[in-house]
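User: My instructor asked us to take a sequence, write out its structure as tokens, and then describe one feature of it. I'm not sure where to start. Here is the sequence I was given:
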Amino acid sequence: MSVAIRPARVEDVDDMRALINGYAAEDRMLERSRDFLIEHLRDFVVAEGSSGFLGCCSLAVLTPDLAEVRSLAVRPEASGRGIGRQLVLACVAEARRLGLRRVFALTLSPQFFERCGFVLTSLGRLPEKSASECPVCPKRFACDEHAMLLHLDGTVPEPLAASEPVGYTRLFLGVEPGGRSAP
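Assistant: Let's start with the prediction itself. The structure tokens for your sequence are:
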């Protein structure tokens, strides 16, 4: 099956929303409104095959140094064919084109992002994300996602320390490394 990765268009919004919100209903990603998708349409790429829309992904630039891969979703019947990887790599290529230094993703599937070259990190190493968006996230008090980081200059991010907190919940609710409550 031949797959093309291209910039999203307005006519993709309904397919993107249905796919993303289907996964959101399973608590696998955050829901996105039609207005959000239209407002951020330029951030999205889509995968398209002979049968039509297969998936989507976005690159959200947070700072001149950092972007996030978000809303990665592939139709269940098309999974396992490398489409998600192609979408992520398209976002990474765009981050390089923009001159960014780092790209990260919050995910329930860290092994997938490891296969794309990302490494596990602490959300505490991404204060741009944790300060701006985590406080308003509906999962902020029960965050189960892993932060995955890719340096675009070819260096490898420092490995996660065994006692380092991973998610927003542990990072900001008074739990110190090692699981002890903060004073």
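For the description part of your assignment, you could build on this observation: Residues 101-183 form one domain. Try explaining in your own words what that tells you about the chain.
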